[in-house]
Amino acid sequence: MEFDLIQSTLRENGLDGWLFYDHHHRDPIAYRVLKISPPMCTRRWYYLIPAEGDPSKLIHRVERQNLAGLPGRELEYSSWKEQHEGLKKILEGKSRIAMQYSALNEIPYVGLVDAGTIELVKSLGVEVVSSADLVQLFEARWSEDALASHLEAGKVVHAAVRAGFAAIRDAVRAGKGIREYDVQQEMRRVFDAAGVVTDEGPVAAVNRNTANPHYMPRSDGSLPIGVNDFVLLDVWGKMNKPGAVYFDITWTGFVGMEVARGYTEVFEAVREARDAAVDFVQAAMESGRTIHGYEVDDVARGSITRRGYGRYFVHRTGHSIGEDVHGNGANIDNFETRDTRKIIPRICFSIEPGIYLPEFGVRSEVNVFVEESGARVTGEIQRAIVPILAPAY
Predict the structure, then answer these.
(1) Same-domain status, 254 and 106
(2) In the chain, is it the N or the C terminus that has fewer CB atoms within a 10 Å radius of its CB?
């Protein structure tokens, strides 16, 4: 835990402390920031890092081990009355603290503390503000090891995409049937052989299913893939080791020697929006200009809207990437939410605009890692739809 840095950051932001709270492992952020992993959490615990002085723990006598190893004075409780008195003691003299809370639930990834607990803290005369910026600073930034794991996983993820397209090519050329689920399982085999894991997926979608941003093929009911079909592969995974972070991309292909023009036109609109968003981030970081997640979304969405497809872009431009594929840093979003968090060095996020027409959908996804004075796409960049039956594939 970066205790001294947390305290100095609290002082810089005019906060009296950061109050962590959990019950039944509902707040994974708390465990990652504090670097603890109690096996059981059936009773409530609180941990206050003040802007000045020593931390304070409030734990139940039944589960004294929950905050073991963390510094600070320790208060215990058994009854709810003791709990309230203990909380009052550790918050004494504090007027403004951060918690995993988001006003109006603007950033649901951070809004993990229940409303009743927020009410309880407020009843003690303490103002509660969102810890969203603190979470990004202390949980979403990547170490060099995390970045290395991302790049390592990226090689496997790209290999899985190539394997997916190759499986389609080989089956179609041989006159054999192949379904979306079969392609998914082929990509899974690539993962398994290389020690890459994923929470679910990957996605292999064809024709009308590509117009569903969260389509997932299943063993029963997935569609066959044949000549002149349009295919989308959304593939994410991470190395199977502690602290590894995800790599997450989306590519599209057409089962033919040449890609039909209608697909190309939509892809070009998506590609243009993707590249405009990446260029915007890179230019801002290189010039030292502060930008926020919502501004990057505006760039991509504006590009697609000018092309006449605005109403078919139905999700945010991108999401934070971390140990979970949807991480706890700034999202590239001014659509589903207004993410006002700053884009800061050592965070990573996807840029993945999409256009979803009734007949098919196109999405192109890259990962952007922010450096001290720049930003870079961490993998291969799709420049055109893959002609799956062409000799190169």
Answers:
(1) no
(2) C
- Check whether residue 270 and residue 332 sit in a common domain: yes
CA distance linking residue 125 with residue 106, whole number of Å: 24
> Is residue 393's pLDDT more than 70?
no
Asked whether 373 and 288 are in contact (CB, 8 A), the reply is yes
Average pLDDT for 179-206: 97
In degrees, to the nearest 5, what angle opens at C-alpha 313 toward C-alphas 389 and 215? 55
| Residue at 393 is within a domain | no
Tell me, yes or no, whether 107 and 204 share the same domain. Answer: no
Identify how many contiguous H helices and E strands the chain contains and give both numbers: 9, 16
Number of domains in the chain: 2
Q: Are 282 and 374 in contact (CB under 8 A)?
A: yes
Q: Which of 139, 164, 193 is the last residue of a domain?
A: 139
What whole-number distance in Å separates Cα of residue 237 and Cα of residue 290? Answer: 30
pTM as predicted? 0.90
Residue range(s) defining the domain that contains residue 276:
141-387
- Residues sharing a CB contact under 8 Å with residue 102, sequence separation 6 or more, in sequence order: 108, 110, 111, 130, 132
Tell whether 115 is covered by a domain. yes
Distance between CA atoms of residues 340 and 312, nearest Å: 24
Question: Which of 96, 116, 139 is at the close of a domain?
Answer: 139
Confidence at residue 39, expressed as pLDDT on a 0 to 100 scale: 85
Output the average pLDDT for the chain: 95
Question: From CA 184, how far away is CA 162, in angstroms rounded?
Answer: 12
